């Protein structure tokens, strides 16, 4: 557990950084929100362990607290257990991510289901898709009733986004070439 020696304890980092001129403006809004929320919730002390997982996949496991006493109580005598937990969680998340990626790339779609997804990605609604495909709107809805569960999506737009992400659709492709 040689990485354990590289654990980082930080005190008041968020509060100091928020008041450093120009610091926060370097980050995107989502990242700025993390700093502001940490400060808002009184998180200004923590313990972070850098993780080098399988195949060079990196992570940072952090434990945060409101007071140094609370952090030291959690960490003292347990640093090796925290490190072991961090490594286990990291490996487990990678396995879950690989399983999800494998599942997504194995989605079987008919040509018509794929065409419906492509038109949805282009912003068309059911009636417009039906007109372009020269089918009934009910048939489009039927295609989606079978497609959405294959992706585990919340709706047809979500399924179209997921299809783009796994490469089943090209985000900029035009459906007229089908």
What is the structure about, briefly put?
This protein is mainly alpha-helical and 178 residues long. The protein contains 8 helices and 3 strands, in the order E-H-H-E-E-H-H-H-H-H-H. Helix 5 packs across helix 7 (137-151) and helix 7 (137-151) packs across helix 8 (156-165).
Helix-strand pattern: EHHEEHHHHHH
Mean pLDDT: 76
Low-confidence stretches: 1-6, 171-178
Q: Can you count the helices?
A: 8
Strand content: 5-15%
Number of beta-strand segments: 3
Q: How much is the radius of gyration in Å?
A: 24 Å
Helix content: 40-55%
SSE topology:
Elements: E1 8-11, H1 13-18, H2 29-40, E2 45-52, E3 58-65, H3 68-75, H4 79-105, H5 111-121, H6 126-133, H7 137-151, H8 156-165
Antiparallel strand pairs: 1-2, 2-3
Helix pairs in contact: 5-7, 5-8, 6-7, 7-8
Question: Please, could you describe this protein's structure?
Answer:
The chain is mainly alpha-helical. The chain contains eight helices and three strands, in the order βααββαααααα. It has helices at 13-18, 29-40, 68-75, 79-105, 111-121, 126-133, 137-151, 156-165; strands spanning 8-11, 45-52, 58-65. A three-stranded antiparallel β-sheet has the order 1-2-3. The N and C termini lie far apart (55 Å). Mean pLDDT is 76; it is low at 1-6 and 171-178.
Keyword list:
3-stranded antiparallel sheet; 3 strands; disordered C terminus; elongated; mainly alpha
């Amino acid at each position: 557990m040689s990485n354990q020696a590289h654990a980082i304890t930080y005190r008041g980092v968020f509060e100091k950084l928020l008041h450093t001129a120009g610091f926060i403006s370097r980050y995107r809004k989502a990242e700025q929100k993390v700093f502001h929320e940490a400060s808002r919730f009184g998180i200004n002390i923590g313990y972070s362990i850098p993780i080098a997982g399988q195949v060079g996949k990196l992570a940072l496991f952090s434990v945060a607290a409101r007071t140094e006493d609370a952090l030291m109580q959690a960490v003292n005598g347990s640093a090796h257990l925290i490190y072991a937990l961090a490594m286990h969680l990291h490996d487990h998340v990678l396995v879950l991510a690989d399983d999800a990626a494998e599942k997504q790339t194995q989605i079987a779609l008919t040509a018509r289901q794929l065409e419906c997804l492509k038109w949805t990605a282009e912003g068309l609604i059911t009636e417009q898709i039906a007109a372009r495909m020269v089918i009934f709107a009910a048939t489009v809805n039927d295609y989606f009733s079978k497609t959405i569960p294959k992706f585990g999506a919340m709706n047809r737009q979500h399924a179209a986004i997921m299809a783009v992400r796994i490469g089943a659709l090209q985000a900029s492709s035009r459906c007229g070439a089908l």
